[in-house]
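Technical annex, item 7. During the second reporting period the consortium partners agreed on a shared format for inverse folding records so that results from different sites could be compared directly. Each record opens with the tokenized structure and is followed by the designed sequence. A conforming record, contributed by the partner at site C, is shown below for reference.
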């Protein structure tokens, strides 16, 4: 039987232990390693239930008139960031509840109006390097996404012949005001193709006056089609189903390649639709909660305004 020589091998945190080369080759765990390595983060079910029953999980008492109101049908399109992530491996019920509470508190301080992709908006943020400590940017919303506190939107404008795009976090505390100058929708969910369009479609004056929309009216849909500049483009727009773009006037070989990589069967894939959307019952319960908290916030804001008016008198 072959004899193995012994050698001092380094262990965790400058501790040493006599190990044979055979043990080292087999990677036998050292006793010191097991004692010094930290244990995995683990919460007992009792601890989790205590957090679930804490004060953070309790909602304020709502008047009966608020709880009995029905939720408008378009509420999930106005507040899509309140819906949870459809990917279940990225979800946590406690985190989602805490994020919604933070979002309610933030909306009680700043007015976040209704807007969609295609709306022209003006955003004012705090900037310590600006002379008046504020910075205002006007642009068209070309994208809106994210869930919870990670919700964002992107504005685009052309300044001095250069396209400028700024992504804002919707619930960032540095946002001072969000104003919708022109409320409208576009036929496409994203307007990134404006990067390859003439600059006139992305140019808006910073002193633009807001265009009011009558209360109770439907949101207008802008069906304007944009003619893109000649190739090269930033993306292969012929491979995307764009409704707001005119005929691209490309050679037939481009459309043949687009047909080869197209996936027309995805619109019939029910599992794909299920993975990309949340449960209908859960969505309705969350929208009911959002509607109730919004009504309560509106009542509190109206009380504050009446108090300010009374103080001025």
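Designed sequence (site C submission):
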């Amino acid at each position: 039987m072959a004899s193995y020589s012994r050698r001092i091998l380094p262990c965790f945190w400058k501790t040493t232990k006599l190990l044979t080369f055979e043990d080292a080759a087999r990677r036998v765990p050292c006793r010191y390693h097991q004692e010094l390595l930290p244990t995995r983060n683990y919460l007992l079910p009792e601890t989790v239930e205590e957090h679930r029953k804490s004060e953070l999980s309790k909602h304020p008492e709502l008047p009966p008139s608020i709880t009995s109101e029905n939720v408008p049908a378009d509420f999930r399109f106005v507040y899509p960031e309140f819906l949870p992530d459809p990917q279940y491996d990225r979800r946590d019920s406690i985190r989602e509840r805490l994020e919604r509470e933070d979002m309610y508190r933030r909306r009680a301080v700043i007015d976040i109006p209704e807007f969609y992709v295609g709306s022209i908006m003006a955003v004012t943020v705090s900037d310590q390097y600006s002379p008046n400590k504020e910075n205002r940017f006007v642009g068209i919303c070309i994208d809106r996404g994210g869930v919870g506190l990670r919700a964002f939107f992107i504005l685009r404008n052309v300044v001095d012949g250069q396209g400028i795009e700024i992504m804002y976090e919707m619930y960032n505390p540095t946002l001072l005001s969000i104003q919708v100058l022109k409320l409208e929708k576009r036929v496409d969910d994203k307007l990134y193709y404006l990067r390859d369009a003439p600059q006139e479609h992305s140019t808006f004056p910073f002193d633009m006056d807001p265009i009011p929309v009558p209360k109770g009216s439907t949101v207008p849909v802008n069906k304007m089609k944009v003619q893109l500049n000649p190739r090269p483009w930033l993306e292969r727009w012929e491979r995307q189903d764009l409704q707001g773009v005119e005929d691209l006037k490309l050679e037939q070989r481009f459309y043949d390649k687009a047909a080869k990589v197209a996936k027309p069967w995805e619109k019939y894939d029910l599992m794909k639709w299920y993975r990309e959307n949340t449960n209908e019952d859960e969505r309705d319960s969350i929208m009911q909660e959002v509607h109730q908290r919004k009504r309560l916030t509106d009542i509190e804001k109206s009380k504050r305004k009446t108090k300010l008016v009374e103080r001025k008198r």
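Residues 1-22, 24-29, 32-40 have pLDDT under 50 and may be disordered. The chain is about 30% helix and 20% strand. All partners now use this format for quarterly exchanges.
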